[in-house]
Amino acid sequence: MKYAAIKTGGKQYLVEPGDTLEIEKVDGGKDDKVAFDKVLLKVDDGKVEIGKPFLGGAKITAEILGQIKAKKVRGVKYQRVGQRTKFGHRQKLTKVRISNI
To answer: If DSSP codes are grouped into helix, strand and coil, which group holds residue 31?
Structure first.
């Protein structure tokens, strides 16, 4: 059984070959390949490698499935009595499939 822990977009993910993830936006189009070199942990049939903080020479490859947007987040900021400002945000994400560890 193979799996690894990677860091991308300020977040950490535990991935296996064939997993589909929604991560922070990565440049590239559909069917492009992307490599993650910030590998924190790698397990291959019981052999565990732990990085300090990253493993040197380890790469995880993935295929971009598409660029998507997350759900809209809305909020209200109250400034003075009777005065408020509405705001919203929609995070851009990239959907990827892990192909090789």
So the answer is: coil
